[in-house]
Amino acid sequence: MGPPLVSALKASAAQNAASFHFPGHNRGHAAPSSLTKLIGLKPFIHDLPELPELDNLFSPEGPILEAQKLAAKLFGSQETWFLVGGTTCGIQAAIMATCSPGEHIILPRNSHISAISAMVLSGAIPKYIIPEHNCNWDIAGGITPSQELEMEGQKPAAVFVISPTYHGICSNLTEISQLCHSYGIPVIVDEAHGAHLGFHPQMPHSALKQGADLVVQSTHKVLCSFTQSSMLHMSGNVVDREKICRSLQTLQSTSPSYLLLASLDAARAQLSENPETIFNKAMKLATEAKILIKKIPDDILYGNHGIVSELVGSQSITFAFNLGTCKEHVQRLVSGLQELSACSLQIETTETKVKDRGHAPFTDISMSLNPRDAFFANKRKVGIRESLGKVCGELICPYPPGIPVMIPGEIITERALDYLLGVRRKGVVVTGASDPLLSS
Ligand SMILES: Cc1ncc(COP(=O)(O)O)c(C=O)c1O
C-alpha cells in the first residue's frame, strides 16, 4: 500500500471524469503550454480540488486524516496537521491558539517574521529574550532555561523557542519544557530547520521527544516535500486542539493544493521506509566536507563558482546538506573553495574584519506600542535619519533568514538604522519597508 494521500490522488486523477470543477486548467486540458513544456502535464492532471474521495483538510476523515495519523506516529506526536502555508502559518496558528489579546508570550528577539506577525494576529504582548551573539560567526546562539522564564509578575501564556536556529544551533528543550511545564506554560518550538532531528544517532533529539507541546517543521526545508508544505505537531494536553483547528481554518487557504498535501505524505513515507539509515549518506558527506573545508586556509568565499549556498552572512556562509546532496556536488564545493582561496588576492586585515562585522542590533531595543496596536495605527512617512527615536510602523526584515530588524511598536535606534542600511548596501533584500530604497 502506497502513502494514502498519494494513492488517493493517483486514483482520482486516473478517472475519466468530465470535469466541471476548479482549477480552471481543467485537469491539464487548458494548461498553459509554457509551463507544460517545462514540467509536463502530470502536475496539472494531479492538481485536483477537494473532491469527496480526496478528503477535506479542515475536516479530515479519509486519506488526509490517515496521512496525518501516519505522520503523527513517525514524528511522535499526539496529533499532526498538514500545512500548505509553510511553517509561517503553523507558527501563527500555534501562537493564536495559546495567546489571547493582551497575554504575554516569551520569545527570542531574533524570531522569524512569522512569530512577529503572529503577535499582530493574536494581540499577544512580546517579552523578548536576547540570545547570546556569536561574533566570530555573526550568528545568534541558543536559549537557556533561566533566560526563558525571567518574567516579572504575570504568567506568560506561552514560551516560544527556535531550535535549531537557521544556522543549526539547538537549545536544551528538555530543561526548558520541564521548567515551563512546572508553571503550566506551553512550549512552542519553531523546528522549521529540524524535521530530520532524531533520525540519526549523531543528531539531537526532536523537540517533541524533548517535551515540547507544539512543534512546527518545514518538511520542505530538510525533508523532501514541496516548498510551502509543513507540519504542525501537538503533544500532551496543555494546548486545546480545537483552538489549533480554528486558527488553522482562519489562516489557511480554502483551496489547499493537493500536490503540496500529497508531497507531505510522500516525504513522510520516504522517511518511514528506513528511518534509521536514511540520513547516513548525507551525514557522512557533511562530515567529510567539514574536514576538507577546515583544511582550506582562507575562510572567505569571494564569488560564486556555480555553487549555490543557502545564505551568505557577514562572517559565515551556510551550505545546506540534505538527502539530495551527492558526492560530486561536495567535491565541487570543496574544489571551488580551494580555488577561491588560492586565487584570492585580497587578504583581509584583522582591522577590516572587525569593521565589517555585522552585529545583530537587538541589545538596546525598547517597545513603545505592542505589535498589534502599532500595526493598525496610522503611519507617517519621514526621512530615514529623521526616523531615529520614533516608533516604527513597519515590519522590516532582511531576507533570508527572515528575522525582522524593526518591529511595529519598537523605538527606532541608530544601531538598527545603521545595520539595515549596511545590509542593504551589501545587496541583501530588505522586505516590509514601503520605501524599498530605505531613504524614508
Ligand atoms: C527559523 C525559521 N522559522 C520559520 C520559518 C518559516 O518557514 P516557512 O518558509 O516554511 O514558512 C523559517 C523560514 O526560513 C525559518 O528560518
From TrEMBL:
One of its GO terms (molecular function) is carboxy-lyase activity. The keyword Lyase applies. InterPro entries: Orn/Lys/Arg_deCO2ase_major_dom, Orn_Lys_Arg_decarboxylase-I, Prn/Lys/Arg_de-COase_C, Prn/Lys/Arg_de-COase_C_sf, PyrdxlP-dep_Trfase, PyrdxlP-dep_Trfase_major. Residues 3-295 form the Orn/Lys/Arg decarboxylases family 1 pyridoxal-P attachment site domain. Keywords: Decarboxylase, Lyase, Pyridoxal phosphate. It comes from the Eukaryota. Its cofactor is pyridoxal 5'-phosphate. Residues 364-423 form the Orn/Lys/Arg decarboxylase C-terminal domain. Belongs to the Orn/Lys/Arg decarboxylase class-I family. This is Orn/Lys/Arg decarboxylases family 1 pyridoxal-P attachment site domain-containing protein. It comes from Hevea brasiliensis.
